[in-house]
Design goal:
This protein is an alpha/beta fold and 414 residues long. It has 3 domains: 124 residues, N-utilizing Substance Protein B Homolog, Chain A, CATH 1.10.940; 56 residues, Alpha-Beta Plaits, CATH 3.30.70; 189 residues, Vaccinia Virus protein VP39 (Rossmann fold), CATH 3.40.50. It has a 7-stranded mixed sheet, with helices on both faces. Strands 2-3-1-4 form a 4-stranded antiparallel sheet, covered by helices on one side. The longest helix has 18 residues. The protein is globular. Bound molecules: S-adenosylmethionine (SAM).
Length: 414
């Protein structure tokens, strides 16, 4: 029985897997880059896979998953490992999952019994068992109360792969059948009308249906955001923090590619990505626009039927897919991002027409980034023009998907 709380299917897969020196070396080198050279886990994984073109699909899956899981359980692994040697840390992770280690000299000094005994000693300390910084455990418990225990437990599990059907090109049923023909089984989660969940985690970006723009990879909770805007074909919509355009593309599909979406961001390079994705999706109503300063926003005063503020946030709702976030965040960085969120609300809300809708969204579970921001805005001078219609506090352990917050506000008539 594995000690760590990982799903069964994955453990079966890993337990039957033999370790190979070259892939384990790949993992160890990647971990060195992530923690000792402070690189982003996803970038390091991408580079590792690229520089080892001879690895097969199974090797690639092993390397990518092991790196992610070691990042996720980093604090716990370090706590129970006999040393900080990277092979010892890998071996400790492997043993903690209930696997056996081969007889390699790199693993000398690792004793499964001692590791288990150490684990038993720390497992009642939540921050250690869940492998999170103390400050995060304290903040989570203070802000989420009883719900924190289950929430952090869920956020430490692997995310399922969810796709959003591009309804401009294909229906959900048709896509489901098409993927099934390629041996990819999916199911439709209840309550998410454009989503399909892959029965088994796998890399889907190489599939022809993706290249043909029939779907995008997007978590089910994230798909609730565009739906909250209640768009209609022909509307003028502003996605003010559009990034690479995930929500803009969804909005375009909901608008049947009729009307206009201004996809804005302060980072121009992200909008380049939006353009490419729009082409693949068969979307022509997106106009990317870089925010140069307050003038860009002022020129759009009262111009939009709908404004989406998918603001920068701590990302604590998406820890399942970005486990390194917890090692990069700090109370100070969260405070900084909260300040930015309030500024965006204050400065961008004016782009909504009277009687139009403003949607504020984050992929965070912290009330301080979510409902408290909306309350602060509504009680401010600029917020007096708006009223809260409804909000959704999506927790990972309740929804089964990412943690999100979505508030729908209406601008009052003049
Ligand atoms: C949560 S991400 C958006 C994700 C995107 N909506 C999607 O669905 O893929 C937040 C985005 O806000 C952008 N951003 C940061 N500060 C901003 C600002 N002051 N105004 C507009 N966008 C900003 C970031 O560059 C980032 O792309």
């Amino acid at each position: 029985m594995p000690i760590l709380n990982l799903n069964e299917e994955r453990n079966t897969y890993l337990c039957t897997m033999k370790l190979f020196p070259n892939t384990v070396r790949g993992v160890v080198q990647a971990i060195d880059e992530i923690f000792n050279q402070n690189r982003y886990a996803d970038k390091v994984i991408e580079k590792t896979l690229k520089s080892n073109p001879k690895w097969g699909a199974r090797d690639r899956a092993f390397v990518a998953e092991t790196i992610y899981e070691m990042v996720r359980w980093w604090r716990l692994i370090n706590e129970v490992s006999p040393s900080k040697d990277l092979y010892h840390l890998f071996g400790t992770y492997w043993l903690l999952q209930g696997n056996k280690l081969p007889d390699w000299r790199e693993f000398n000094g690792l004793d499964a019994y001692k590791i288990k005994t150490k684990y038993e000693k720390v497992k009642d300390i939540r921050a250690l068992k869940q492998s999170i910084p103390d400050w995060l455990d304290q903040m989570g418990a203070a802000l989420l109360g009883d719900k924190w225990d289950e929430e952090i437990d869920t956020l430490n599990q692997q995310a399922s792969v969810v796709i959003r059907v591009n309804t401009l090109k294909i229906s959900r049923e048709e896509l489901m059948n098409r993927l099934a023909q390629d041996g990819i089984e999916t199911y439709s989660p209840k309550g998410y009308k454009d989503a399909l969940v892959l029965a088994k985690r796998q890399n889907i970006f190489k599939n022809q249906a993706f290249k043909d723009g029939l779907f995008e990879v997007q978590d089910a909770s994230s798909q609730l955001v565009a739906a909250a805007l209640e768009v209609e074909p022909g509307m003028r919509v502003i996605d003010a923090c559009a990034g690479a355009g995930g929500k803009s593309l969804h909005l375009a599909a909901l608008m049947e590619n009729k009307g206009r979406i201004l996809s804005m961001d302060v980072e121009g390079w992200k909008l380049q990505n939006t353009k490419l994705r729009a082409r693949r999706n068969g979307v022509s109503i997106i106009e990317p626009r870089v925010i140069e300063g307050s003038k860009t926003i002022k020129r759009l005063n009262e111009s939009a039927d709908r404004v989406l503020l998918d603001v920068p946030c701590s990302g604590l709702g998406v820890l399942k897919r970005n486990p390194d976030t917890k090692w990069k965040l700090s109370p100070e960085s969260i405070e900084k991002v909260q300040k930015m969120q309030q500024e965006i609300l204050q400065n961008y809300a004016s782009m909504v027409k009277p009687e139009g809708l403003l949607v504020y969204a984050t992929c965070s579970i912290l009330p301080s980034e979510n409902q408290l921001q909306v309350e602060k805005f509504l009680s401010s001078e600029k917020g007096k023009d708006f009223e809260l219609m409804e909000d959704q506090k999506v927790l990972a352990h309740e929804s089964g998907f990412d943690g999100f917050y979505i508030a729908k506000l209406k601008r009052k008539a003049k």
